[in-house]
Amino acid sequence: MKLASRIALIKPSPTLTIQAKANALKAAGRDIIGFGAGEPDFDTPLNIKEAAIRAIHAGFTKYTPVGGTDELKDAVIAKFQRDNQLTYRRSEIVISCGAKHSLFNVAQVLFEEGDEVLIPSPYWVSYTDIVFLTGAKPVVIRTRVGDGFKLQPAQLEAAITPRTRAIIISYPSNPAGVCYSRRELEELAAVILRKGIMIISDDIYEKIIYDDQPFFTLASLGDELKRISVVINGVSKSYAMTGWRIGYAAGSEEIVSAMTKYQSQNTSNPTSIAQKAAVEGLNGPQEGVGMMTREFQKRRDLIVERLTAIPGVTCLKPQGAFYVFPNVGSYYGRSFGEKVIRNSAEMATYLLDEANVALVPGGDFGHDDHIRISYATSIAQIEKGVERIRLALLKLR
Ligand SMILES: *Cc1c(COP(=O)(O)O)cnc(C)c1O
After folding, report:
1. Ligand 1: which atom is nearest the Cα of residue 38?
2. How many whole angstroms separate alpha carbon 20 and alpha carbon 375?
3. 315: which of 326, 356, 372, 377 fits an S-S bond (Cβ 3.0–4.6 Å)?
4. Does residue 22 have a pLDDT over 90?
5. pLDDT above 90 covers what percent of the chain?
6. How many CB atoms are located within 10 Å of the residue 348 CB?
């Protein structure tokens, strides 16, 4: 059968693929340690679950307005005010089926053939494919490990052409946990404003940030920046709600109403009961987020210590999110039996086959010398998994 050519432009999400493979091996009885997960290992807090159960019993099970209920929009508006000192109206908010869906929709309404969209690397695996599907060209700006994987203003400036429409930026970042200070953001903002491109800011890890660092979204640094920004966020990571599929976008009324129109012809509204749960997440007690983050910080400290103790492995200390992105490139070119490990995909396969550890190749995030390890798993699993990685690396000749 002939498929539309657009489907050949993209690859299946590598993180979801690894997770599925690890789950299949586990189901077959293999003792796999899963470092692939892109989601918190904590359960959704009980108050949030109960809000959804109440919604079901109350019969809140019909279509809602396409762009989300007023109740949830108001909870999102209150969140932006409280956390980011940003003021939005209901007409400037659209709720979607996860932050990924919000990103997809904003890309669909803004970009087309001939446009270029800047993506600093290492980047989240989906950004490039989301841009490809619009016909636009993703332009990857390779950040340097020596700069802490932070985009430098001069790099940004050099990447901008007359075709550049926007930059997609996300911090704390997946996969490296990179975070920017206010000063660093102001320097990037100066270039963005001078060049007149738009900002798509993916703030999904806003709350998972370590060492008491403050978080600033670019849009909060001035009215002009707010005007050119679309801020994307969601409840998946902050409230351990990945399966509920609620994300949101805030931006100009023009963009938000276009996104709502687009959504009206594909998914319609996000699930009604999940919207009720998201209201409880945003408006309810916030202690769970802090508890989860403190636990992630302990795991980060442990995993960075253990990884960097392996000869030839280097690793930046993440400032947020729940991933580490160590460099294992010094082991490329070595072999196990007949098999030479040449790149991150082969390394990930080797570690899965020989060490029973599932993780994601760094090549999928734009940096092939690296692998991505999610530490959204227990301390015991982290200790065991990193030890397996260590032994497997030392076995290579
Ligand atoms: C997990 C993740 C998302 C997607 O979040 P959903 O709301 O579950 O769709 C978006 N951006 C980044 C960087 C992520 O890691």
Report:
1. 1
2. 17
3. 326
4. no
5. 95
6. 27
Among 239, 364, 390, 217, which residue's Cα sits nearest to residue 311? Answer: 390
What are the E-state strand segments in the chain?
Answer: 33-34, 93-96, 116-121, 137-142, 164-170, 198-202, 229-234, 247-250, 323-324, 335-336, 339-340, 357-358, 360-361, 371-374
- Listed in sequence order, the residues at least 6 apart from 161 whose beta carbon sits closer than 8 Å to its beta carbon are 116
Sheet holding 116-121, edge to edge: 93-96, 247-250, 229-234, 198-202, 164-170, 116-121, 137-142
**For a pocket test of ligand 1, which of 19, 39, 174, 209 has the largest count of ligand atoms closer than 8 A to its C-beta?**
174
Q: What is the pLDDT of residues 101-143, one digit of tens each?
A: 999 999 999 999 999 999 999 999 999 999 999 999 999 999 9
DSSP-derived pairing of the beta strands 339-340 and 229-234: unpaired
For residue 200, pLDDT over 90 is answered with yes
Ligand 1 pocket, residue 242 CB under 6 Å:
yes
Determine contact, residues 374/391, Cβ cutoff 8 Å: no
Question: Which amino acid belongs to residue 80?
Answer: F
Domains and CATH numbers, the chain: 5-43+288-395 (3.90.1150.10), 62-283 (3.40.640.10)
The residue written with tokens 């007690």 in the block is 285
